[in-house]
Amino acid sequence: ELEAARNAASSDNLRSPICCILGHVDTGKTKLLDKIRQTNVQEGEAGGITQQIGATYFPVEALQKKTQVVNQDGAFEFKVPGLLVIDTPGHESFTNLRSRGSSLCNIAILVVDIMHGLEPQTLESMRLLRERKTPFIVALNKIDRLYGWKPIANNGFRESLGLQNKGVQNEFRDRLEKTKLAFSEQGFNAELFYENKSMAKFVSLVPTSAHTGEGIPDMLKLLVTLTQERMTKQLMYLSEVECTVLEVKVIEGLGTTIDVVLSNGVMHEGDTIVLCGTDGPITTQVRALLTPAEMKELRVKSVYVHNKTVKAALGVKITANGLDNAIAGSRLLVAKNKDDEDEIEELEEDVMGDLENLMSRISKT
Ligand code: GDP
């Protein structure tokens, strides 16, 4: 019976959404990432969170545990198999994670410091999100800095707020209203998440503290809600590979490698791949698909595990010949037939079509 249930769930055939974090410097992006990765051993929360190349993977079991305080009755249903969160916060990772003008980030968390409101890079982030039509939620972070805030570690926000004194509640409302007004001046209508009647019309604001962990269960639940309500089509599992180069890195003993995010499809060792290079297209064979070794595997000589096959969504390191001139941000395509010269040529033209865009970004940074 259990087996049947599992099959039913997988018949939805959704892949894990990919999430980016962006926002102004010092709003707490890094701290929020650290906090959601942290596992609570006392509460038996191991959950299988795995560190990947450039990203952290949260399987649905981990998400269920982390959202338990705001889903006591279990009424909220998870349909996605998990969530892949990109580790590098900020615009760069977001603008790099693109394909054909659309972002490979399916959803984003825009972090705003509740004490500071909207700042220059917040506006820049909003512009990018609008341009790419990326659904996002706003983490209104550092609520523990509201004067007199009494924290309850890792609690749901609504309950925590209810337990504060009137003065704290008033200051919160005041800052919330100011933030909503600032968002509307930017052309976004925003609502406190549990007062939001339509995620299609309003951006949800979720108050958080990366220090106390309050609001983080709400934030994760909201991310899953947003993906499930708004983007099941984009999350249908495809056989076609969608893959983007995050970073080009020289690693001792491996030569030049590329760290990629495989956002859809399956890749195999030996696949013929095509990507963008500074000296023209690069066509090469995948020598190895590497993922970080888990702690228990670390005593074996390598920090990486070799995979014959990898399936989206995940971050993976690729080794291959000829990657020296690879460009970060490039799409990576896989040839169906490595001996079909016409196909290879088509793929090469395809990836090089992005070059102008990529180069203008490189010259700007
Ligand atoms: P980033 O530049 O957006 O990645 O910001 P960081 O995560 O590096 O945080 C910037 C500073 O704000 C650090 O000193 C953090 O300790 C602090 N900080 C981050 N989140 C919170 C929070 O929720 N509450 C408080 N009080 N401080 C925070």
How is this structure best described in words?
The structure is a single chain. It is built from ten helices and 20 strands. With 365 residues, it is α+β, with helices and mostly antiparallel strands. Strands 2-3-4-1-7-8-10-9 form an eight-stranded mixed β-sheet, with helices on both faces. It has an eight-stranded antiparallel β-sheet with strand order 15-14-20-11-12-19-16-17, with helices on one face. It has a two-stranded antiparallel sheet with strand order 5-6. It is elongated, with a radius of gyration of 21 Å. The site of guanosine-5'-diphosphate has 15 residues, from helix 2.
Key features of this structure:
single chain; 365 residues; alpha+beta; 8-stranded mixed sheet; 10 helices; elongated; disordered N terminus; binds guanosine-5'-diphosphate; Eukaryotic translation initiation factor 5B
| Main pleated sheet | 8 strands, mixed
Ions, cofactors and other bound molecules? guanosine-5'-diphosphate
* Number of DSSP strand runs: 20
Oligomer: single chain
Helix content: 25-40%
Give the strand order, joined by hyphens, for the main sheet: 2-3-4-1-7-8-10-9
Q: Strand fraction band?
A: 25-35%
Give the low-pLDDT segments.
1-11
Cα-atom radius of gyration: 21 Å
Shape: elongated
Helix/strand structural class: alpha+beta
Please outline what is shown here.
The protein has 365 residues and is α+β, with helices and mostly antiparallel strands. The protein has helices at 2-11, 29-37, 60-66, 91-96, 120-132, 157-162, 166-185, 216-230, 341-352, 355-364, and strands at 18-23, 50-52, 55-59, 82-86, 98-99, 102-103, 107-113, 136-141, 190-192, 203-207, 242-251, 255-264, 266-268, 272-275, 282-285, 288-292, 304-307, 309-311, 314-319, 331-334. The longest helix is centred in the middle third of the chain and has 20 residues, at 166-185.
